[in-house]
Amino acid sequence: MEGQAFVSLVGFRFLNTKVLGISFPLHRNFEEVNLRLYVQRRDKLVLKRGVVFIREIVPRWAIATVARTLYHENYVSLPMEQRTSTDDSGRR
To answer: What's the pTM?
Structure first.
């Protein structure tokens, strides 16, 4: 949509994560938040769409360092926490 900007903040919970097939204690389960924007361009008559990741945030410096080094991603480490609660209707 020409002239409009779409930006989102997306939260994830990674579980049983492995790097190159290896699981690292205390680094398997973690939160991630990423700030992204959505882009599109015309290539001849074809509309191509994509996602640009502005920043990816994780709670542990080792995860951020590995992601930057191995995957060339724009990761930073910041303090984070998440909570899950339940009530009679299920999980919130």
So the answer is: 0.71
